[in-house]
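Fig. S4 source data, part A: sequence.
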Amino acid sequence: MSVFQYSAMDHAGKQVSGSLEAGDEAALSKELTRLGLFLVEAEAMEGSRPLRLPGERRKRKDVPLEDVILFTKQLILLLKSSLPIVQSIDSLAMQQKNLAFRKILYMLSGDLTRGLPPSQSFARHPEAFDQVFVSLVSAGEASGRLPELLARIEEYLNFQSELKHKVRTALMYPAVLASVSFVVIMFLMVFVLPTFVDIFNQFDAPLPWATRVLLNLSLLIRGWWWLGALLVLGAGFQVKRWLKVPQNQARVDHWMLAIPIIGPMVDAVLLARMLRTLSVLVESRVPILKALALTRGATQHDYYRRLLDKISDYVSEGRGLAAAMYESARFPRSVSNMVATAQRTGNLPEVLKLSADHYQKELDKAIQNAFSALEPLFIAVLSVTVATIVLCVLQPIMSLGSIVN
Protein backbone atom coordinates (compact mmCIF):
# COMPACT_ATOMS: atom_id res chain seq x y z
CA MET A 1 0.00 0.00 0.00
CA SER A 2 1.21 3.50 -0.85
CA VAL A 3 0.04 6.99 0.04
CA PHE A 4 -1.05 9.01 -2.99
CA GLN A 5 -1.31 12.78 -3.25
CA TYR A 6 -4.21 13.34 -5.62
CA SER A 7 -6.15 16.04 -7.43
CA ALA A 8 -9.75 15.19 -8.30
CA MET A 9 -12.97 16.77 -9.53
CA ASP A 10 -16.42 16.42 -7.97
CA HIS A 11 -19.74 16.26 -9.82
CA ALA A 12 -20.05 20.07 -9.74
CA GLY A 13 -16.67 20.44 -11.46
CA LYS A 14 -14.91 21.73 -8.33
CA GLN A 15 -11.22 20.82 -7.94
CA VAL A 16 -10.46 18.77 -4.81
CA SER A 17 -7.03 17.68 -3.55
CA GLY A 18 -5.85 15.47 -0.72
CA SER A 19 -4.03 12.25 0.13
CA LEU A 20 -5.26 8.66 0.29
CA GLU A 21 -3.78 5.22 0.84
CA ALA A 22 -4.30 2.69 -1.96
CA GLY A 23 -2.63 -0.29 -3.58
CA ASP A 24 -2.20 1.30 -7.02
CA GLU A 25 -3.64 3.95 -9.31
CA ALA A 26 -6.64 1.81 -10.29
CA ALA A 27 -7.53 1.22 -6.63
CA LEU A 28 -7.15 4.93 -5.92
CA SER A 29 -9.44 5.82 -8.82
CA LYS A 30 -12.02 3.26 -7.67
CA GLU A 31 -12.01 4.59 -4.10
CA LEU A 32 -12.36 8.19 -5.28
CA THR A 33 -15.24 7.18 -7.56
CA ARG A 34 -16.94 5.62 -4.55
CA LEU A 35 -16.55 8.98 -2.79
CA GLY A 36 -18.12 10.80 -5.73
CA LEU A 37 -14.85 12.15 -7.15
CA PHE A 38 -13.11 11.74 -10.49
CA LEU A 39 -9.31 11.34 -10.45
CA VAL A 40 -7.47 13.98 -12.49
CA GLU A 41 -3.87 13.77 -11.24
CA ALA A 42 -2.02 11.59 -8.74
CA GLU A 43 1.48 11.16 -7.35
CA ALA A 44 2.77 8.25 -5.30
CA MET A 45 4.46 9.39 -2.09
CA GLU A 46 6.90 7.62 0.28
CA GLY A 47 9.55 7.12 -2.39
CA SER A 48 7.23 5.55 -4.94
CA ARG A 49 7.43 6.53 -8.57
CA PRO A 50 5.25 9.51 -9.50
CA LEU A 51 2.12 8.61 -11.43
CA ARG A 52 1.22 10.29 -14.69
CA LEU A 53 -1.61 12.51 -15.69
CA PRO A 54 -4.48 10.61 -17.32
CA GLY A 55 -3.76 10.24 -21.02
CA GLU A 56 0.01 10.35 -20.63
CA ARG A 57 2.02 7.24 -21.40
CA ARG A 58 5.15 5.60 -20.09
CA LYS A 59 8.02 6.72 -22.25
CA ARG A 60 10.02 3.50 -22.41
CA LYS A 61 7.48 0.69 -22.51
CA ASP A 62 4.65 2.08 -24.58
CA VAL A 63 2.82 -0.43 -26.74
CA PRO A 64 2.73 0.80 -30.37
CA LEU A 65 -0.57 2.42 -31.23
CA GLU A 66 -0.94 0.18 -34.31
CA ASP A 67 -0.89 -2.92 -32.09
CA VAL A 68 -3.62 -1.49 -29.86
CA ILE A 69 -5.73 -0.63 -32.93
CA LEU A 70 -5.41 -4.15 -34.33
CA PHE A 71 -6.23 -5.67 -30.93
CA THR A 72 -9.34 -3.48 -30.60
CA LYS A 73 -10.53 -4.35 -34.10
CA GLN A 74 -10.09 -8.09 -33.52
CA LEU A 75 -11.72 -7.91 -30.08
CA ILE A 76 -14.80 -6.28 -31.62
CA LEU A 77 -15.13 -9.11 -34.14
CA LEU A 78 -14.78 -11.80 -31.46
CA LEU A 79 -17.29 -10.14 -29.10
CA LYS A 80 -19.78 -9.74 -31.94
CA SER A 81 -19.36 -13.48 -32.56
CA SER A 82 -20.67 -14.02 -29.00
CA LEU A 83 -17.30 -15.23 -27.70
CA PRO A 84 -16.78 -14.33 -24.00
CA ILE A 85 -14.36 -11.48 -23.40
CA VAL A 86 -11.86 -13.60 -21.43
CA GLN A 87 -11.62 -16.23 -24.18
CA SER A 88 -11.40 -13.47 -26.78
CA ILE A 89 -8.46 -11.81 -25.06
CA ASP A 90 -6.73 -15.17 -24.47
CA SER A 91 -7.08 -15.96 -28.18
CA LEU A 92 -5.67 -12.56 -29.18
CA ALA A 93 -2.82 -12.89 -26.70
CA MET A 94 -1.67 -16.14 -28.32
CA GLN A 95 -1.60 -14.41 -31.73
CA GLN A 96 0.22 -11.31 -30.45
CA LYS A 97 3.78 -10.95 -31.78
CA ASN A 98 4.70 -8.07 -29.49
CA LEU A 99 5.96 -9.89 -26.38
CA ALA A 100 5.36 -6.94 -24.03
CA PHE A 101 1.80 -6.52 -25.29
CA ARG A 102 1.21 -10.29 -25.10
CA LYS A 103 2.20 -10.22 -21.42
CA ILE A 104 -0.22 -7.32 -20.83
CA LEU A 105 -3.06 -9.22 -22.51
CA TYR A 106 -2.47 -12.33 -20.37
CA MET A 107 -2.48 -10.14 -17.25
CA LEU A 108 -5.67 -8.51 -18.52
CA SER A 109 -7.26 -11.93 -18.98
CA GLY A 110 -6.20 -12.94 -15.47
CA ASP A 111 -7.77 -9.81 -13.95
CA LEU A 112 -11.04 -10.47 -15.78
CA THR A 113 -11.03 -14.11 -14.68
CA ARG A 114 -10.70 -13.01 -11.04
CA GLY A 115 -13.84 -10.89 -11.50
CA LEU A 116 -12.32 -7.44 -11.98
CA PRO A 117 -14.51 -5.24 -14.25
CA PRO A 118 -13.12 -4.63 -17.79
CA SER A 119 -12.58 -0.90 -17.22
CA GLN A 120 -10.49 -1.49 -14.08
CA SER A 121 -8.59 -4.30 -15.80
CA PHE A 122 -7.67 -2.04 -18.73
CA ALA A 123 -6.83 0.82 -16.34
CA ARG A 124 -4.05 -1.31 -14.78
CA HIS A 125 -2.08 -1.10 -18.05
CA PRO A 126 -1.77 2.60 -19.01
CA GLU A 127 1.26 1.81 -21.20
CA ALA A 128 -1.21 0.30 -23.68
CA PHE A 129 -4.64 1.73 -22.82
CA ASP A 130 -4.93 5.42 -21.95
CA GLN A 131 -7.63 7.03 -19.81
CA VAL A 132 -9.83 7.83 -22.82
CA PHE A 133 -9.81 4.13 -23.77
CA VAL A 134 -10.60 3.12 -20.19
CA SER A 135 -13.44 5.63 -19.84
CA LEU A 136 -15.09 4.44 -23.05
CA VAL A 137 -14.81 0.83 -21.90
CA SER A 138 -16.37 1.89 -18.59
CA ALA A 139 -19.25 3.56 -20.46
CA GLY A 140 -19.69 0.42 -22.55
CA GLU A 141 -19.83 -1.96 -19.59
CA ALA A 142 -22.26 0.34 -17.74
CA SER A 143 -24.64 0.52 -20.72
CA GLY A 144 -24.19 -3.08 -21.90
CA ARG A 145 -22.92 -1.82 -25.28
CA LEU A 146 -19.25 -2.77 -25.01
CA PRO A 147 -18.79 -3.85 -28.68
CA GLU A 148 -20.40 -0.60 -29.85
CA LEU A 149 -18.16 1.48 -27.59
CA LEU A 150 -15.10 -0.51 -28.72
CA ALA A 151 -15.99 0.46 -32.29
CA ARG A 152 -15.87 4.12 -31.25
CA ILE A 153 -12.55 3.47 -29.55
CA GLU A 154 -11.22 1.98 -32.78
CA GLU A 155 -12.41 5.04 -34.70
CA TYR A 156 -10.73 7.31 -32.16
CA LEU A 157 -7.46 5.34 -32.24
CA ASN A 158 -7.44 5.36 -36.05
CA PHE A 159 -7.83 9.13 -35.94
CA GLN A 160 -4.90 9.37 -33.52
CA SER A 161 -2.77 7.17 -35.76
CA GLU A 162 -3.63 9.17 -38.87
CA LEU A 163 -2.90 12.43 -37.08
CA LYS A 164 0.44 11.11 -35.84
CA HIS A 165 1.34 10.01 -39.37
CA LYS A 166 0.55 13.47 -40.75
CA VAL A 167 2.67 15.15 -38.10
CA ARG A 168 5.58 12.79 -38.79
CA THR A 169 5.28 13.50 -42.51
CA ALA A 170 5.26 17.22 -41.84
CA LEU A 171 8.41 16.95 -39.69
CA MET A 172 10.21 14.49 -41.97
CA TYR A 173 10.21 16.73 -45.04
CA PRO A 174 12.12 19.69 -43.54
CA ALA A 175 14.35 17.24 -41.64
CA VAL A 176 15.38 15.56 -44.92
CA LEU A 177 15.99 18.92 -46.60
CA ALA A 178 18.06 20.13 -43.66
CA SER A 179 20.06 16.88 -43.60
CA VAL A 180 20.82 17.04 -47.33
CA SER A 181 21.89 20.67 -47.00
CA PHE A 182 24.17 19.82 -44.07
CA VAL A 183 25.76 16.86 -45.89
CA VAL A 184 26.46 18.92 -49.04
CA ILE A 185 28.02 21.76 -47.05
CA MET A 186 30.16 19.40 -44.95
CA PHE A 187 31.34 17.58 -48.09
CA LEU A 188 32.52 20.86 -49.61
CA MET A 189 34.16 22.00 -46.38
CA VAL A 190 35.87 18.72 -45.45
CA PHE A 191 36.78 17.12 -48.81
CA VAL A 192 36.68 19.75 -51.56
CA LEU A 193 38.04 22.90 -49.97
CA PRO A 194 41.23 21.36 -48.43
CA THR A 195 42.42 20.20 -51.88
CA PHE A 196 43.03 23.83 -52.80
CA VAL A 197 45.22 24.55 -49.76
CA ASP A 198 48.39 23.13 -51.35
CA ILE A 199 47.78 25.12 -54.54
CA PHE A 200 47.49 28.36 -52.61
CA ASN A 201 50.54 27.53 -50.47
CA GLN A 202 52.75 26.82 -53.51
CA PHE A 203 52.36 30.35 -54.83
CA ASP A 204 52.52 31.97 -51.42
CA ALA A 205 49.85 34.38 -52.60
CA PRO A 206 47.78 36.52 -50.23
CA LEU A 207 44.31 35.15 -49.81
CA PRO A 208 41.08 37.12 -49.38
CA TRP A 209 39.84 37.21 -45.77
CA ALA A 210 36.71 35.22 -46.64
CA THR A 211 38.84 32.42 -48.14
CA ARG A 212 41.13 32.39 -45.10
CA VAL A 213 38.10 32.11 -42.79
CA LEU A 214 36.70 29.17 -44.76
CA LEU A 215 40.07 27.38 -44.88
CA ASN A 216 40.57 27.77 -41.12
CA LEU A 217 37.00 26.59 -40.52
CA SER A 218 37.63 23.56 -42.74
CA LEU A 219 40.81 22.68 -40.83
CA LEU A 220 38.95 23.13 -37.55
CA ILE A 221 36.17 20.77 -38.65
CA ARG A 222 38.61 18.10 -39.86
CA GLY A 223 40.79 18.21 -36.76
CA TRP A 224 38.22 18.81 -34.06
CA TRP A 225 35.02 17.22 -35.41
CA TRP A 226 34.72 15.07 -32.30
CA LEU A 227 34.65 18.18 -30.10
CA GLY A 228 31.84 19.61 -32.23
CA ALA A 229 29.91 16.36 -31.90
CA LEU A 230 30.34 16.44 -28.09
CA LEU A 231 29.17 20.06 -27.98
CA VAL A 232 26.07 19.23 -30.02
CA LEU A 233 25.25 16.25 -27.79
CA GLY A 234 25.83 18.32 -24.66
CA ALA A 235 23.63 21.12 -25.95
CA GLY A 236 20.90 18.61 -26.81
CA PHE A 237 21.10 17.12 -23.32
CA GLN A 238 20.86 20.56 -21.69
CA VAL A 239 17.88 21.55 -23.85
CA LYS A 240 16.12 18.29 -22.98
CA ARG A 241 16.82 18.87 -19.29
CA TRP A 242 15.62 22.48 -19.56
CA LEU A 243 12.37 21.37 -21.19
CA LYS A 244 11.62 19.03 -18.27
CA VAL A 245 10.89 22.11 -16.15
CA PRO A 246 7.12 22.73 -16.55
CA GLN A 247 7.49 26.52 -16.76
CA ASN A 248 10.04 26.22 -19.57
CA GLN A 249 7.90 23.73 -21.49
CA ALA A 250 4.95 26.12 -21.12
CA ARG A 251 7.02 28.94 -22.63
CA VAL A 252 8.00 26.76 -25.59
CA ASP A 253 4.35 25.72 -26.10
CA HIS A 254 3.32 29.37 -26.34
CA TRP A 255 6.26 30.27 -28.61
CA MET A 256 5.36 27.45 -30.99
CA LEU A 257 1.92 28.94 -31.55
CA ALA A 258 3.49 32.31 -32.47
CA ILE A 259 5.79 30.95 -35.23
CA PRO A 260 4.30 31.96 -38.63
CA ILE A 261 4.60 28.61 -40.45
CA ILE A 262 4.63 26.18 -37.51
CA GLY A 263 1.94 27.88 -35.40
CA PRO A 264 -1.08 27.16 -37.66
CA MET A 265 0.01 23.53 -37.99
CA VAL A 266 0.34 23.09 -34.20
CA ASP A 267 -3.05 24.78 -33.76
CA ALA A 268 -4.75 22.46 -36.24
CA VAL A 269 -3.21 19.32 -34.68
CA LEU A 270 -4.20 20.22 -31.11
CA LEU A 271 -7.69 21.46 -31.95
CA ALA A 272 -8.46 18.42 -34.10
CA ARG A 273 -7.26 16.06 -31.36
CA MET A 274 -9.06 17.95 -28.59
CA LEU A 275 -12.39 18.17 -30.42
CA ARG A 276 -12.25 14.56 -31.62
CA THR A 277 -11.51 13.26 -28.12
CA LEU A 278 -14.28 15.38 -26.64
CA SER A 279 -16.79 14.32 -29.31
CA VAL A 280 -16.10 10.60 -28.79
CA LEU A 281 -16.45 10.92 -25.02
CA VAL A 282 -19.64 13.02 -25.15
CA GLU A 283 -21.17 10.74 -27.79
CA SER A 284 -20.45 7.80 -25.48
CA ARG A 285 -22.45 9.54 -22.73
CA VAL A 286 -19.47 10.30 -20.54
CA PRO A 287 -20.44 13.27 -18.28
CA ILE A 288 -19.25 16.52 -19.81
CA LEU A 289 -17.01 17.56 -16.89
CA LYS A 290 -15.36 14.15 -16.83
CA ALA A 291 -14.97 14.30 -20.63
CA LEU A 292 -13.26 17.69 -20.35
CA ALA A 293 -10.93 16.41 -17.61
CA LEU A 294 -9.99 13.37 -19.71
CA THR A 295 -9.43 15.54 -22.78
CA ARG A 296 -7.20 17.80 -20.72
CA GLY A 297 -5.19 14.79 -19.53
CA ALA A 298 -4.70 13.67 -23.13
CA THR A 299 -3.49 17.13 -24.20
CA GLN A 300 0.26 17.70 -24.05
CA HIS A 301 0.23 21.48 -24.53
CA ASP A 302 0.14 24.15 -21.82
CA TYR A 303 -2.06 26.66 -23.69
CA TYR A 304 -4.73 24.09 -24.49
CA ARG A 305 -4.62 22.63 -20.99
CA ARG A 306 -5.39 26.13 -19.68
CA LEU A 307 -8.10 26.52 -22.31
CA LEU A 308 -9.75 23.27 -21.20
CA ASP A 309 -9.52 24.40 -17.56
CA LYS A 310 -11.36 27.57 -18.55
CA ILE A 311 -13.99 25.62 -20.47
CA SER A 312 -14.48 23.33 -17.42
CA ASP A 313 -14.99 26.39 -15.22
CA TYR A 314 -17.58 27.79 -17.62
CA VAL A 315 -19.43 24.46 -17.82
CA SER A 316 -19.45 24.01 -14.03
CA GLU A 317 -20.88 27.54 -13.71
CA GLY A 318 -23.62 26.69 -16.21
CA ARG A 319 -22.38 28.92 -19.04
CA GLY A 320 -21.54 26.06 -21.43
CA LEU A 321 -18.85 25.29 -24.00
CA ALA A 322 -19.79 28.00 -26.49
CA ALA A 323 -19.26 30.85 -23.99
CA ALA A 324 -15.64 29.79 -23.41
CA MET A 325 -15.06 29.31 -27.16
CA TYR A 326 -16.33 32.81 -27.90
CA GLU A 327 -13.68 34.26 -25.58
CA SER A 328 -10.81 32.25 -27.10
CA ALA A 329 -9.05 33.54 -30.21
CA ARG A 330 -8.21 29.96 -31.19
CA PHE A 331 -11.77 29.05 -32.12
CA PRO A 332 -13.30 30.57 -35.27
CA ARG A 333 -16.62 32.28 -34.64
CA SER A 334 -18.33 29.80 -36.98
CA VAL A 335 -17.33 26.86 -34.75
CA SER A 336 -18.44 28.69 -31.61
CA ASN A 337 -21.81 29.47 -33.24
CA MET A 338 -22.29 25.81 -34.22
CA VAL A 339 -21.48 24.64 -30.68
CA ALA A 340 -23.91 27.20 -29.22
CA THR A 341 -26.65 25.92 -31.55
CA ALA A 342 -25.76 22.30 -30.76
CA GLN A 343 -26.11 22.92 -27.02
CA ARG A 344 -29.67 24.09 -27.61
CA THR A 345 -30.63 21.31 -30.03
CA GLY A 346 -28.82 18.44 -28.27
CA ASN A 347 -26.54 17.36 -31.15
CA LEU A 348 -23.25 18.46 -29.54
CA PRO A 349 -21.30 15.23 -30.33
CA GLU A 350 -22.06 15.54 -34.05
CA VAL A 351 -21.02 19.21 -34.14
CA LEU A 352 -17.80 18.49 -32.24
CA LYS A 353 -17.03 15.70 -34.71
CA LEU A 354 -17.67 18.02 -37.68
CA SER A 355 -15.43 20.64 -36.07
CA ALA A 356 -12.68 18.04 -35.62
CA ASP A 357 -13.03 17.10 -39.31
CA HIS A 358 -12.75 20.78 -40.18
CA TYR A 359 -9.48 21.17 -38.27
CA GLN A 360 -8.15 17.96 -39.78
CA LYS A 361 -8.65 19.56 -43.20
CA GLU A 362 -7.02 22.71 -41.87
CA LEU A 363 -4.05 20.56 -40.84
CA ASP A 364 -3.72 19.29 -44.41
CA LYS A 365 -3.71 22.89 -45.64
CA ALA A 366 -1.19 23.92 -42.97
CA ILE A 367 1.15 21.07 -43.99
CA GLN A 368 0.87 22.04 -47.66
CA ASN A 369 1.57 25.68 -46.78
CA ALA A 370 4.56 24.63 -44.69
CA PHE A 371 5.95 22.57 -47.56
CA SER A 372 5.39 25.43 -49.99
CA ALA A 373 7.22 27.86 -47.69
CA LEU A 374 10.05 25.65 -46.42
CA GLU A 375 11.15 24.09 -49.72
CA PRO A 376 12.23 27.35 -51.44
CA LEU A 377 13.67 28.58 -48.13
CA PHE A 378 15.96 25.54 -47.75
CA ILE A 379 16.92 25.63 -51.43
CA ALA A 380 17.75 29.34 -51.17
CA VAL A 381 19.88 28.84 -48.04
CA LEU A 382 21.70 25.87 -49.61
CA SER A 383 22.27 27.74 -52.88
CA VAL A 384 23.63 30.85 -51.14
CA THR A 385 25.92 28.79 -48.90
CA VAL A 386 27.32 26.68 -51.76
CA ALA A 387 27.74 29.76 -53.96
CA THR A 388 29.64 31.54 -51.17
CA ILE A 389 32.02 28.57 -50.74
CA VAL A 390 32.60 28.32 -54.51
CA LEU A 391 33.27 32.07 -54.85
CA CYS A 392 35.70 32.00 -51.93
CA VAL A 393 37.64 29.22 -53.74
CA LEU A 394 37.44 30.62 -57.26
CA GLN A 395 38.42 34.19 -56.38
CA PRO A 396 42.04 33.36 -55.37
CA ILE A 397 42.33 30.80 -58.20
CA MET A 398 41.41 33.45 -60.75
CA SER A 399 43.97 35.82 -59.24
CA LEU A 400 46.74 33.19 -59.50
CA GLY A 401 47.05 33.88 -63.24
CA SER A 402 48.17 37.42 -62.66
CA ILE A 403 50.57 36.30 -59.92
CA VAL A 404 52.19 33.72 -62.25
CA ASN A 405 52.59 36.28 -65.04
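Fig. S4 source data, part B ends here. The beta strands are 2-10, 15-22, 37-44.
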